[in-house]
Amino acid sequence: MKQIYTITAFAENRPGVLYRIADLFLRRKVNIESLTVSEIEHTGQSRFTILVHAEPLLVEKLVKQLYRIIEITKVIDSLDQSLIIKEIALIKITAKNLERRREIEQLVHLANGKIAAVNQSYLVVEKTGTEEEIDSLHELLKPFGIKEFVRSGRIVVFK
Amino acid sequence: MKLTGSQAVMESLLKENVKVIFGYPGGAIMPVYDALYDYMDRIIHVLVRHEQGAAHAAEGYGRITGEPGVCLATSGPGATNLVTGIADAMMDSVPIVCITGQVASHLVGSDAFQEADVMGITAPITKWNYQITDANEIPEVFSKAFHIAKTGRPGPVLIDITKDAQFATFDFSYPKEVKMESYQPTTHPHPKQIELAAELLNKAERPYILAGHGVIIAKAEKDLIRLAEKGGIPVAQTLHGVSIFPTAHPLHVGFLGMHGNYGPNILSNKADVVLAVGMRFDDRVTGRLKDYLPDAKIIHIDIDPAELNKNVQVEIPIVADAKNAIQALNKEIKKRSHSAWIKEFQKCYQLEEKKVIQNECDPKKGKIKMGEAIYKLNELTKGEAIIVADVGQHQMMAARYAKFVKPNSFITSGGMGTMGFALPAAMGAKYALLHPPNGQVSDGKASLDREVICITGDGGVQMNIQELATLAQENLPVKIVILNNDFLGMVRQWQELFFKKRYSMTKIKNPDFVTVAKGFYLQAEKVEKREELMGALKRMLKSKGPYLLDIKVEKEQNVFPMIATGASVDEVRLE
Questions:
Q1: For chain B, what are the domain ranges?
Q2: ipTM of this predicted complex?
Q3: Which one-letter DSSP state was computed for residue B336?
Q4: Residues of A within an 8 Å Cβ radius of B
């Protein structure tokens, strides 16, 4: 049965590694649901966090095939229960009238988010949390008219 | 010492003991060719007639020596012409290093003249690739490239060098060793896994060894023979495993797969313990997966962890170099014999002999048959020759009927099935015998005199026929045998068996190959009659230079046994 897997890959920080990783998922016809890449401080290594929805056996094969990429040093596949998962979302909402702003601020406050930017015509809500928390705040804010909604894709640390 | 990037390329090749390179000049690689002019006393450059030929020739060289074959091409079309050869090397784990020129770095990405995104194009078909835009990178990248190409599971590596990096001067010094944190193939088996594997084999009633290319790459042939002899275990070889065992060895039961021998296929499913070593359970070997090896506990040795549990779920996966793993197993294995089990293989062989082999190799009437031609060739070469087969019916016939006494004597395009492979690969193999990397001549003169025979078809030979010009220019004594049935025979066979004999685009009007060869200044002969075959083969082997023999064979002959696509190995057909 298909499950959500987070594949964390560590690799030398060089051009072309992402290309090879992406190509492998393409060959196996596995869609990348989200992807974040960043350099691990002072190591010359990058950390790739790749979210996929796939069968366990296929994930096992993907992980082994990822190791074929010369620059890759370590690959770990995990299910959600073994991870601390966070994602960040930015939600831009038109809000010209004061009443509505108050309502939004209250909601955001309740949902543990914050207001990242504000001006006369809109405000930007910033929410860090699990995917579900972000989804639920998104639902709550929908009636106010969302202009833009961006999410970063998950980053994780291992429990 | 101060060198230009191009001189550094030459010096790096010398540091890697490269004796021969196969290539073709062009704009973006001209500085390297200019540097080569001063190195022609130390590096032999073979001017192919198409870059695909260079890549396959490098493969032939790499397969014979175990050291990377090297090819050189220009940017754009030069590089893209290498692609089929690179993909072939990737599938068949062949060490090659391809060096391509690239437009100047300030033009990269601008759709410049003869610019192609070679890095992007070759990423999925190389073990590693790298674009050098700064001459200072040359020594480190070359040492890494050769290291990566030949260690672990070998494969193709491509180095793309921009023209400005070829011109730039810098202080050259070559690294003494390669240090790579991220690339450290596991070469020694886990002792516990070996113990478990030995335990299984020692208890087995019907153990069976499937031996593949990895055994040859690891040069573990003798160790495997010792293991089989000690454990009394029959051994079947994959297409790339052909010639691991001398053909006549009593424990060698034959060739596996779609057109392999009857016994090795049908008895797979009777084995209770299977030791698969240096092979990857390709679909041509396994047939229908869900009915493959139903009763067997499987031990799988491979240096590439990604091959373990990829196609077939195994009990004991062992990540290791085949030689280390087999040597470790040899210490644990008990002396056994399984004569009743081996007798089953013999019985199957007798049946195959009666139903297929006799008629194929010793027909009394009708046109010459493909198997017969190979059989006659065996009589003359005594199994000493290196056979390089192309792709198609003749390839299966060569794998089935060519006899071998030495390991690593059968070269073909397996995974990729690249028509046009054999002629340039045979060229590379012959260079490997004549000019091996430093100090590698294993058996002196014997190796220099060893015949390299290209067995090809009338279709396949036309897919790189321009390399006849290279053979002529170098006067390289490669012998070319065309098994000519005026058909694209393997596809025709499938059309006959699975597409109601609708011969769509498989009947071909061939050129007169003798005239073609002579036009290229090669000696050549055509033979059509059985009674003239032996004489023609003898003349070919006696000739001094390159030689083409066009053998007209029966037109609509099929290769049997056969496991149809999607069928199980125990549904192998004899007719």
A1: 2-171, 191-345, 367-552
A2: 0.92
A3: -
A4: 11-12, 16, 19-20, 23, 27, 60-61, 64-65, 67-68, 70-73
